[in-house]
Amino acid sequence: MKLNAQTQAAALGIALLPLAATAQSAAAQAYTPQTTSCPSGFALYRDAGNAGNQTISSSESAYVQSRKSNVLPGAWKTYLANVQGTSAGSSLPSYVSEILNGTGSAQDLPTLGIASSGGGYRAAFFGAGTLNALDARNSSSASAGLGGLLQSATYIAGLSGGSWLLSSLVQANFPMIQELVFGPTQNTSNTQNSWGGWMADMGLSEPSDSLLTNGEYIDGLLNEFKGKQSAGWPVTFVDLWARTLARHFSNGTTMNSFYDENLPHGAGILWSDVVNTPAFASYNIPFPIVVVDMHAPNENDSNVITLDTEPITNTVFEFNPYEMGSFDPNLAAFTQTKYLGTTNTSVCVTGYDQQAFVTGSSSALFNSFNSQALSSTLGPLLQAIEGVIGNPDDLLYAAYPNPFYGVTTGGFLGSNQTVLTLVDGGEDGENLPIQPLFVKARGVDVIISIDATADINNYAAGSALIATQNRTSLFPSAYSFPPVPTSIQTFASQNLADRPTFFGCNTTSSNDTTPLIIYIANGGPPAGASSTSDGITNTATLQLSYNDTFAQSFIDQTFAIATQGRPSSGGDTKDGEWPACVACAVVDRARGRAGQERSGVCQSCFERYCWSGVELDATGPGTGGQSSGAVGAVRPGLLGAVVGGVVVGLGAMLML
Ligand SMILES: *[C@@H]1O[C@H](CO)[C@@H](O)[C@H](O)[C@H]1NC(C)=O
Ligand SMILES: *[C@@H]1O[C@H](CO)[C@@H](O)[C@H](O)[C@H]1NC(C)=O
Ligand SMILES: *[C@@H]1O[C@H](CO)[C@@H](O)[C@H](O)[C@H]1NC(C)=O
Ligand SMILES: *[C@@H]1O[C@H](CO)[C@@H](O)[C@H](O)[C@H]1NC(C)=O
Ligand SMILES: *[C@@H]1O[C@H](CO)[C@@H](O)[C@H](O)[C@H]1NC(C)=O
Ligand SMILES: *[C@@H]1O[C@H](CO)[C@@H](O)[C@H](O)[C@H]1NC(C)=O
Ligand SMILES: *[C@@H]1O[C@H](CO)[C@@H](O)[C@H](O)[C@H]1NC(C)=O
Ligand SMILES: *[C@@H]1O[C@H](CO)[C@@H](O)[C@H](O)[C@H]1NC(C)=O
Ligand SMILES: *[C@@H]1O[C@H](CO)[C@@H](O)[C@H](O)[C@H]1NC(C)=O
Ligand SMILES: *[C@@H]1O[C@H](CO)[C@@H](O)[C@H](O)[C@H]1NC(C)=O
Ligand SMILES: *[C@@H]1O[C@H](CO)[C@@H](O)[C@H](O)[C@H]1NC(C)=O
Ligand SMILES: *[C@@H]1O[C@H](CO)[C@@H](O)[C@H](O)[C@H]1NC(C)=O
């Protein structure tokens, strides 16, 4: 994009200040990375191995082990009691309760992962509403028989809009979803650094109705990364984006302090700091992972899937509180998150892994924009930055000094880049951050995949699973993925996305360690909605503000979607067996290890909820629920829209 920055800025009421004019604000200081001497024995990265010798870090391993011994036995019992309280829960086969109450012969609890997709605020709200339905602390979720799964998960991953949800949740010390989204209700002494809520009604790009206020606000944001810039670090649009996101998804901002330029507004809160929150320190949070993609000047663009921006062959990075790197065999290496920015073993950098910058990187889809972007809701931010950083080519990527410089194992694409250029985790089409959960060394049994990708009409139809199937098939030594359909038409025609579906139900001895997927997608309005117009969860990815009333309705409608299952006839709004069926899926791999046969209600659940393996066929087994009236009726229209190419024009803008 080419802009006359001064003209644009003037129109917005922004005065472009000379560099470093106010670089000493609290936020600017806290956002600037520091250098220190490296600890003895410091290594820039570790070899994460591949196939038989793939390893997770010792810190992750210690966290997971402590969580499994101290927290999960109680968490699974709470969940089990909630399932048993539902109508079908009492008829579960005894192996389900033995596995979950830890009395089975194997004494082998399931390893559960949860993944929440990208899709901007739509995905953040859909993920939030689903996590709420899985939260034992919400009594409605407990009665619905899903409450407790959140507390029982070993891993939780987020990407783009899903990373806003995940990273705000863990850095705020794992509050309940109502408090996460709307802020604390009780009048606590609000310290400068406590949690204030998402404040989604203050738009990401234009928080106020006043042009002048917005101009001054953006002007202030521009100053917040000038300290980093003056100290010589590469800064890009993603730094501005990070400072924007920090107002909403980091501690340290309330409605009253939103425009106060004297506060740090979350600057200085690091992704590696998450380990110090009380909930993490007591192993009460599933191990959090944020997914980010790579852009590389010498990438092979013939591997870009239609509609996407980055080739599926580029390295996919994960940021967990201890490490950043990839299990992809084309890198298979990790650096320490708290020393991100470091490129040699004598001078170590700290403060580069700002939580909002990691989240900003995961949602940095700006390189997929074209000229539409300027007239979009992001226009004001994009226009403002042009005058500050005069380097349009590198403007749009998150820039990290490359700790993997010179690593050539597996043909790492970034081996001769001094600065790694990272982008939105969904830009290769894998809009669900599930790949880290398929890492063999993590031993995950079952993954609740929460998908709010915009495939059809801003509803999801499986493209993210399809892309991950494609990509993991390139790296069979690192990942094992179950069969999913190869087209969104199959998802649409068999109602695999507008009702929950299990993938990977059938195993043989050669693939019984492949995780099972419980797919809960934002695939359409909930059952019982009188028509599609009742559906409100298909907002546009670039809708950057939500008022509280609408946000609450969105979360509540998501609760209905997450708890409905596959109602068997048009009039039903819920499948009473759904909570029992989820329990069957959750224990299924542990059941296999214990040498038990699937039985009772679990058998009929699997017949109803498992994908049959048949493509595009609406009449095969395992697709029950398609009779559900209202939704079935709109199917041909939606399908026609895809086939007719209507989604093409929206392009990769929808992945945020
Ligand atoms: C894993 O095995 C490969 C191939 O044998 C070897 O090059 C690599 O050093 C090993 N990595 C680890 C972490 O053991
Ligand atoms: C665990 O579940 C089994 C099977 O339902 C039951 O027989 C046993 O009493 C339960 N044990 C505990 C400690 O809840
Ligand atoms: C919250 O507490 C402060 C200090 O005690 C008080 O000034 C303020 O009015 C209270 N606000 C509300 C909404 O109760
Ligand atoms: C954020 O604030 C909450 C209280 O609102 C606190 O428990 C948590 O530790 C804080 N997190 C960080 C990273 O400061
Ligand atoms: C780029 O990818 C295509 C498709 O996978 C492949 O045929 C081609 O050889 C690749 N080119 C290079 C230079 O690796
Ligand atoms: C993804 O898989 C589909 C179906 O197998 C195939 O048509 C498509 O070419 C694949 N794309 C890539 C980039 O591998
Ligand atoms: C090591 O890294 C620091 C910080 O980036 C840099 O200032 C220094 O020049 C580097 N030293 C060498 C020997 O490359
Ligand atoms: C990096 O490597 C690629 C592929 O080998 C090459 O085309 C490119 O010129 C290299 N760039 C630099 C800066 O060395
Ligand atoms: C395991 O392999 C069998 C036979 O190829 C296949 O039918 C099944 O879908 C696979 N299951 C998983 C979870 O990959
Ligand atoms: C809240 O947002 C919804 C959806 O955009 C809109 O219909 C409604 O009028 C808004 N309410 C208020 C009070 O602004
Ligand atoms: C529990 O979830 C429901 C459904 O979204 C919500 O309306 C309610 O406010 C939640 N309760 C609490 C205490 O968070
Ligand atoms: C799983 O096995 C059942 C029963 O044999 C079969 O009907 C179904 O098609 C299989 N599913 C897949 C995905 O292969």
UniProtKB/TrEMBL annotation:
One GO cellular component, as annotated: cytosol
Domain (PLA2c): residue spans on this chain: 37-616
Domain of life: Eukaryota
Pfam families noted in UniProt: PLA2_B
Catalysed reactions, as listed in the record: a 1-acyl-sn-glycero-3-phosphocholine + H2O = sn-glycerol 3-phosphocholine + a fatty acid + H(+)
Record-linked SUPFAM superfamilies: FabD/lysophospholipase-like
Any Gene Ontology biological process: glycerophospholipid catabolic process
EC primary class: hydrolase
Stretch forming the signal peptide: 1-28
Gene3D superfamilies linked: Cytosolic phospholipase A2 catalytic domain (3.40.1090.10)
MF term (GO), any: phosphatidylcholine lysophospholipase activity
UniProtKB keywords: Glycoprotein, Hydrolase, Lipid degradation, Lipid metabolism, Signal
EC number: 3.1.1.5
Family as reported in the entry's similarity comment: Belongs to the lysophospholipase family.
Protein name, per record: Lysophospholipase
